[in-house]
Amino acid sequence: MVHAVSLGEVNASAKLVHELTELGLDVVCSSTTLSGHQRSRELHPSLNHTDWPLDISFCCRRWLDHVNPDVLVLVELEVWPTLVAMAKHRGIPVMVVNGRLSERSFRRSKRWELVLRDGYANLSRVFAQSENDANRFCQMGVAEELVSVHPNLKWDREACCSKDVEAIRLALRLDDTRPVVLFASSAPEEHRIFAKAIPASWQAVIAPRRPEWFDEAMQTFPNARLRTDPDACGDTVVLNTLGELEAVFALADVVVMGRSFGARHGSDPMGPAAAGKPTLVGPNYGDFSPAVEALQAAGALEVVRAEELTRRLSELASCRETLRRMGAAGEQVAAASQGVAGIVAIEIAGNTQPPRRDRGGAEEKEESVHRGAKKTSASGGVHGHK
Questions:
Q1: Torsion of CA 42, 68, 20, 267, to 10 degrees
Q2: Residues 273 and 366 occupy one common structural domain
Q3: Can you give the CATH number for the domain in which 50 is found?
Q4: What is the pTM of this model?
Q5: Assuming Cys at both sites, which of 159, 192, 226, 270 could form a disulfide with 154, CB separation 3.0 to 4.6 Å?
Q6: Domain residues for 13?
Q7: What whole-number distance in Å separates Cα of residue 237 and Cα of residue 193?
Q8: 95-152 tens-digit pLDDT
Q9: Other CB atoms within 10 A of residue 297 CB
Q10: What's the helix, strand, coil split of the chain in %, to 5?
Q11: Contact, 207 vs 184, CB < 8 A?
Q12: Do residues 108 and 207 share a domain?
């Protein structure tokens, strides 16, 4: 059972799900958001999909009875204490993959430590994105020997095939003789900054992070048209669809990652880097610090302030060699970071093997794990009820 809360986590875990199915496992996928459900079904049409339960004992009990997983895999940070404790009580290992616990999330978790700590303490394994993430998981109660650090699963994303790239080029009606700047995963407070920064004679694609921001982008960018409007004209396309951004990376000459020039905390720069595209981000990239810092050190990415963006894009537009060098550096970083999905899949698969019959079979296995579970209200502990 692989649970990815939203669109980003679904994309991040796509390769992992593929590796698990290649190992012959029966994988069930779950998501919390509508966009996550839609994307998961697009990526894995042959697999079963289910909803995620409320973290209430009755709901979790019925959900576990229905799904009955051998292993419960949580992508990034969906540590719900009631469900985790109930799963551990039943002998179901609960693993966090691509584990991320940012400083901001950690501070919130510490405020609710009495409620959340049992969820962390009952985790069977954590594959963290960085040493800082690993240390925070341990501070929340995960045993140190159960935590290891691996590259971000998003480095393992599948490259878009040339057929899909050409299809999106035709759908966007871009002129293949003119360069393209892509403003990806943008937020409304950034749109005026981006609209002023488009280099002369360049085309632009703006991909707002959320559907409710599409209209605002249309109003802010001059000569804008919707990707879904086949009759409109204009040099700027608002990508008002979901699931197509990966293919658009391949069309861009430069990518500017949004949600990093305002008061938010950054967007994933790994997609454009893996596609070999020079990438610019704003100063507020805290949610993706490991990837930004690795790409910046390699010369694949630059961090620029809002007031510098217009000038820097203009400079890059006139220097094709710099664009080529940055793009090649991003591809190298991506290639060196790939392979983690296969490593994690093998360990997950190891927990789905049947127990040895000479040791009592499944019942003894479940009883053994039950004895190791931390007592919580969800499992009928000191303050709970069975």
A1: 50
A2: no
A3: 3.40.50.11720
A4: 0.81
A5: 270
A6: 2-151+339-379
A7: 16
A8: 999 999 888 888 888 888 777 877 899 999 999 999 999 999 999 999 999 999 999 9
A9: 11
A10: 50, 15, 35
A11: yes
A12: no
